[in-house]
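Morning F.,

Quick status update on the modeling queue. The single chain you submitted on Monday has been processed. Sequence for confirmation:
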Amino acid sequence: MQTNDTYSIDGQGLDALEARLHEDLEFLCYPGKDWVPAQDGVSDVVIIGGGMCGMVAWLNLTAGGIRRIRVLDRNPEGYEGPWLNYARMRTLRSPKTLTGPAGGHGALTFQAWFRAQFGTQAWETLDKIPRPQWMEYLRWYRRALGVPVENGVSVEKVEPQGDLLKLTLAGGDEILCRKLVFATGRDGTGGPNIPGFVEGIDRRYWAHSADAIDFEALRGKRVAVIGVGASAVDNAAEALEHGAAEVRHLIRRKTMPTVNKMMGIGSFGFTAGFGALPDEWRWRFMQYSLSTQTPSPHGSTLRVSCHDNAYFHFGKATVRVEDLGTEIKIHFADGTAHVCDFLILGTGFVIDPMARTEFGPVAGEILLWRDVYTPPEDEQSRDLGNFPYLNDDFTFREKSEGAVPWLRHVYCFNYGASASLGKVSGDIPGVSEGASWLAKSMAATLYSEDLSTHWQAMLDYETPELDGSEWTASELPQTTKEKVA
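Structure tokens below.
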């Protein structure tokens, strides 16, 4: 038996790690046998999103022998996902030891990638993963596996064409496919949450935390940030570090959220079992998590509070924003107000299938949780009610059976799936389990759809295991007949 030292790649560089990875994949017969019947001009699967979720979905599908896959991403190469776009935290919020999109392959983990370059001692010293370094890892992941992401490609419209889906791209090109996966991240089934109180206010006075913000332009400015979640805090820190005169957090809650409730129950059992729970329990878990709010990480919060010109104001529910001509005035429910130069909305994202313009008016036919479940009075949540109520294979469901049957070919592998199936399609901790679940479910569906083809292939298969030389026929020796009484 070989020892673990035989396989050590500490400090040996990425070439050694990639050699180990490719050997491991070869041992596992990767990629899987190509078994899906090919159709001329038709992709088996199209994945929208070439970031972490899209790539690990591709890995699991190809491991299962689903080969004709296209992965599309609207961003330039190396800038997929939020990491170098609107994410502004210094480090990831997840522990460094989580396996993330490794798909069960040790050589694909961030830890293996890091240790191959910097060694064990550096790994032990590392606290949390720097955000830009995580993107470096994902770039390597794509290169090492050869994930065929097509960058700069946006899907404008999805519609049925017979038993297939027709995707119309920006520019007019079209793709035909059998299955479509939305691996579109946090805003994958909606978009930024823009409160009504900024309606009519000139955009030079405000931005959402997911926008491309010119922080240098905030130097010397009075900045207000609505919210105190992770993204709100990260954006406040950026403004302070770029020389804002002051940054004031305007927080609706009376106290600071301090406990990440979901972290306390995270386990393989929760990941595997959440989707099979009764509706009332799935709602209860998610509603409690949303209502208690996930706090900003310790280090991120200190990144703000270490500045003397940073302030946290609680019990300040914003009701109106007034344009004063050269500044804005923010009015609160308690009757007070605050004047500032610029407002950052750290208000997160909303789930709203109607915001997915690719579906057109059909988005209104997607079954939502509010259509299915009525929660107790003390567990009400409008936001949670807007989540899609998915099948157990990540596919969308229709509000009226038979109205939009092609929705069963569209898979919601993003944040929108969390109310139905748990956090297995967006967050780092459970994404590999989610991708495995997705691949198995899709493979089962594809096989059943082609059942007659597979049956005929079995009937037509005539490759012999034996050629006749393996045995010699002989006569059975005659025996004396027994007398009959």
